[in-house]
Amino acid sequence: GKGNFRHFMEKELHEHPVVIGDTLRRMVDPSTRGIALPELPFDFARIPRITISACGSAFYAGLTGRWWFEAIARIPTDGDVASEFRYRTPPLPDGGLGLLVSQSGETADTLAALRYMREQGQHVLSIVNVPESSMARESEAVLETMAGPEIGVASTKAFTAQLVVLACLALAAARARGTIGAAEEAALTGALLEVPGRAADVLEKDEALQAIAARLVQARDVLYLGRGNCFPIALEGALKLKEISYIHAEGYAAGEMKHGPIALIDPTVPVIAVAPSGPLFEKTASNLQEAAARGGQVIVFSDAAGAAKLKGIATETVVLPDVDPFVAPILYAVPMQLLAYLVAVLKGTDVDQPRNLAKSVTVE
Ligand code: F6R
């Protein structure tokens, strides 16, 4: 049941800390605090390329994974939504790795992408939440997200669990390829282990989010901006808002704004920035400056240092705990989803069963 929560989605949002922790526990050795994945039927040192396919939020998790694989394991990685990927018939290198991401393990297009990858001689690894699913059965290897049943149609805890698996997989790949040293691996693993506690902090303090939800509920269109490994989190925030509040939202790479979407910006279009401190922060800050100069309401999600730098241009600010930029996408996903939930509640929509959507899309 829903317990004391108004909706399954609210209950499932509050499970983020536990689910992230449970998923990590499967992949981190508690004594060494190093990554310890189950045995995989391939050697990352010999993988020429990773190809990721999935749909919806699971695809955004995959895009974040792509960033991690490239940045820390230095593996060429490509990704596409399954409905495009399966018909693009991309040639894939012998012995490459095909990676599928899915909560249900039954999404028709993702399953077709899996079969295509097998035909193309890829090792096939699925990240699924349902270990008895079709994708799990048809894969060479499976890594399970420990999210438990997800009832709300809009994915929440399964998404952060997918991110955790992908981050650990990228760390394992980096170790196999010698692209990071033991000290860096320990630091990044340590950063992952801090996420459950930080996610709990975010869920506890939602007053700032309430005020922003009250603003968003008035909007017809909302723009979400992010860069680097947080660009997919902007996409996730926008998708979630569309799905459950029916407000039109777009996620954009912050640097793309001036190539089109900036034309939309006026005082009625809130701009939500997923902007943790990190190597790309100053770039995002200058994009936000441009939005503010055009009268946009800039709503900043950052840590204390980032929030201080954006004080002059932000209409509203949500200060999130400090985390290593490597794990920021996992933490920042939590307030994005929670914000969409709060807006939907204000709107009075059917949060757990949004119109026209199904939990598992088993037809193409
Ligand atoms: C978004 C959402 C959908 C799913 C997508 C894939 O909130 O729930 O976009 O992520 O339909 O579903 P799975 O992960 O079951 O393959």
Automatic annotation (TrEMBL):
What reaction does this enzyme carry out catalytically?
D-fructose 6-phosphate + L-glutamine = D-glucosamine 6-phosphate + L-glutamate
Q: Where in the cell is it found?
A: Cytoplasm
User: Where on the tree of life does the source sit, at the highest rank?
Assistant: Bacteria
**According to the UniProt entry, what is the EC number of this protein?**
2.6.1.16
The record's keywords, sorted A to Z, are: Aminotransferase, Cytoplasm, Glutamine amidotransferase, Repeat, Transferase
GO terms in the biological process aspect are: amino sugar biosynthetic process; carbohydrate metabolic process; fructose 6-phosphate metabolic process; protein N-linked glycosylation; UDP-N-acetylglucosamine metabolic process
The SIS domain is annotated at 40-179, 212-354
Which positions are catalytic residues? K359 (for fru-6p isomerization activity)
Q: Where are the transmembrane segments?
A: none
Record function comment: Catalyzes the first step in hexosamine metabolism, converting fructose-6P into glucosamine-6P using glutamine as a nitrogen source.
Question: What does the subunit section of this Swiss-Prot or TrEMBL entry state?
Answer: Homodimer.
The protein's name is Glutamine--fructose-6-phosphate aminotransferase [isomerizing]
The root-end lineage is: Bacteria, Pseudomonadati, Pseudomonadota, Alphaproteobacteria, Acetobacterales
Gene that produces this protein: glmS
